[in-house]
Design brief:
heterodimer; A: alpha+beta; Alpha-Beta Plaits; globular; B: 433 residues; Rossmann fold; four-stranded parallel sheet; 55% helix
């Protein structure tokens, strides 16, 4: 079974996610806002999927902006089993 | 992470069961939406709305209610949002598109009811949909027998108002529908304590027209040869239009359209050249019913337009905003809404005209006619639609499917065969250009 590596940033509230988004936009760092994977948290809400290569820059941005809180950056290795069967 | 459990508890939800529902969505969305290549960046907003589907928007509704506003849930494109807005109430679309709610719906309804009706009843009775739980009033309509009887059952759980939609389009039916709009105005005035005036109704008409215009702007971009957005993503935007804050939705969808217009200028497409273009026609697809679009777009096709209630029927034709008196405004609302060609009408030649027109406008190569099981009106109307499409030499396939994923393999085989069949037709069309 194939596995893929993802990095997810989790936030205490959606406002933190939106604040980080506005900075990433200006710095042309790619990101995707996603529903938080259940493997990472039981709480509903947003998280941000980012590329491995950008993580250090994003950490610097978060450190330099005390108004943005994150709960952490997590890696998720998950088996790619389709809900639609073997399509 | 934001914790909405207190909010859900305050809405008298079944938290344990709701947790099971939350378990499914991220994975389902990830597979269907986040797996796409070359998605527009502007779709991040719509990812956000889905991620916060039971969070932020529910919190906003709770705040509206705290401030004395009422939340009004509806199920159908015939319920005039303009009136809800004019009463300073908040409208939310409630059609239910998840398999999760079917077993609870079947506790109240016959198994051979359509999935949409079963899911709607199941969503309410299971206490797992915070939108239903946030509503001060539900507004039903008489577009099918299944819904009509379901309203009686839902009415045991939540205040219910039913609009009697005529099933023909004679002059007397138009007069009747105007009367129904007047009754709806009275009902909302009583619910909210706010008088609906010419001014507030004009504002409501302006706002909802703007929402229609931005959706038309988005759909116009799907007429391009190079498709700047997938059918799945466009469907998501339309679905979200039903329950998002309208002003914010208009702003964010306009932003998305600006990005898509740049893509069009640069001839960027999310699909490979030559991918068959499909017009989907039929029954509505409520969140999270993304199955058919996903099947089409992972079987070699692209969806360019939906002639459905979660597509063109929702936003085509604006309400005439020149009316100055309440009567003129009500007439304008009635005219616009009765111009929707739902299969509940008899006869319904306008729908065939719409399908033929949309096929041309969106440069489609074929039509996928979609019905939910047990939807008699749409299933029966297929005969007339197919005759008209055959006459115009337009290929069509009928797909009847519910929310479960069990028939995915079979659907894929059928769709792939259909798309293969379109190839020679496309070559002939290209040669004749």
């Amino acid at each position: 079974m194939k596995t893929r590596k993802y990095l997810y940033i989790l936030f205490p509230s959606y406002n933190d996610g939106l604040a980080l988004e506005s900075i990433l936009k200006t710095k042309f760092i790619s990101y995707t806002i996603v529903p938080t994977p259940r493997d990472l948290s039981k709480c509903c809400g947003i998280s941000m999927k980012v590329e491995d290569k950008d993580v250090e820059s994003i950490k610097d941005i978060v450190d330099g902006n005390p108004n943005i809180s994150i709960e952490g950056i997590f890696e998720l290795k998950k088996p790619r089993k389709s809900l639609f069967g073997s399509l | 992470m934001a914790d909405y459990r207190e909010l859900w508890k305050s809405l008298d939800m079944d938290l344990e069961k709701h947790d099971q529902l939350c378990e499914v969505l991220p994975k389902f969305y990830d597979e269907i939406y986040l797996s796409q290549e070359k998605r527009p960046e502007g779709m991040n907003y719509f990812n956000f709305v889905i991620a916060e589907v039971h969070g932020l928007r529910i919190q906003e509704l709770a705040e509206h209610r705290k401030n004395g506003q009422k939340v009004v849930g509806s199920f159908c494109v015939f319920v005039p949002d303009e009136v809800i807005s004019a009463a300073d109430a908040v409208g939310v679309g409630l059609c239910s598109g998840s398999d999760f709610w079917i077993p609870d719906g079947e506790k109240y309804l016959p198994r051979n009811s359509c999935p949409l009706v079963k899911a709607a009843v199941g969503a309410k009775t299971s206490g797992t949909c915070p939108y239903f739980q946030s509503c001060d009033l539900l507004v039903g309509e008489t577009t099918c027998d299944g819904k009509k009887k379901a309203w009686e059952i839902l009415g045991e759980h939540v205040p219910m108002h039913v609009m009697d939609l005529p099933q023909m389009k004679r002059e007397k039916d138009k007069i009747h529908w105007m009367d129904e709009i007047r009754i709806f105005i009275d009902e909302l005035e009583e619910l909210t304590g706010n008088k609906i005036t010419e001014e507030s109704l004009a504002r409501g008409i302006e706002l909802i027209n703007k929402k229609r215009e931005v959706l038309q702007r988005l759909y116009d971009l799907r007429k391009e040869e190079n498709l700047p957005i997938s059918g799945k993503d466009a469907l998501l935007v339309t679905q979200i239009a039903f329950y998002d804050n309208p002003e914010r939705f208009i702003e964010k969808t306009n932003e998305l359209c600006e990005e898509l217009e740049k893509r069009v200028q640069n001839k960027e497409s999310v699909f490979a050249e030559g991918t068959p273009r499909i017009l989907v026609s039929g029954t509505p697809m409520a969140v999270p019913n993304w199955k058919l679009h996903h099947m089409i777009e992972t079987s070699g096709g692209s969806v360019v337009c939906e002639e459905t209630c979660t597509g063109t029927r929702y936003f085509e034709n604006l309400v005439d905003n020149t009316g100055e008196t309440m009567e003129e405004q009500i007439k304008a609302l009635s005219d616009r809404y009765l111009n929707i060609n739902c299969a509940c009408f008899t006869p319904n030649p306008g729908r065939i005209d719409d399908i033929l027109r949309l096929y041309k406008e969106y440069k489609a190569d074929g039509v996928v006619y979609y019905t939910l099981p047990f939807c008699q009106t749409y299933a029966t109307e297929f005969k007339k639609v197919k005759e008209a499409l055959d006459k115009a030499d337009i290929p069509v396939i009928m797909i009847e499917s519910d929310y479960s994923l069990q028939d995915a393999g079979q659907l894929k085989t059928r769709l792939e065969a259909f798309f293969e069949m379109l190839e020679p037709k496309k070559e002939i069309a290209a040669a004749n250009k």
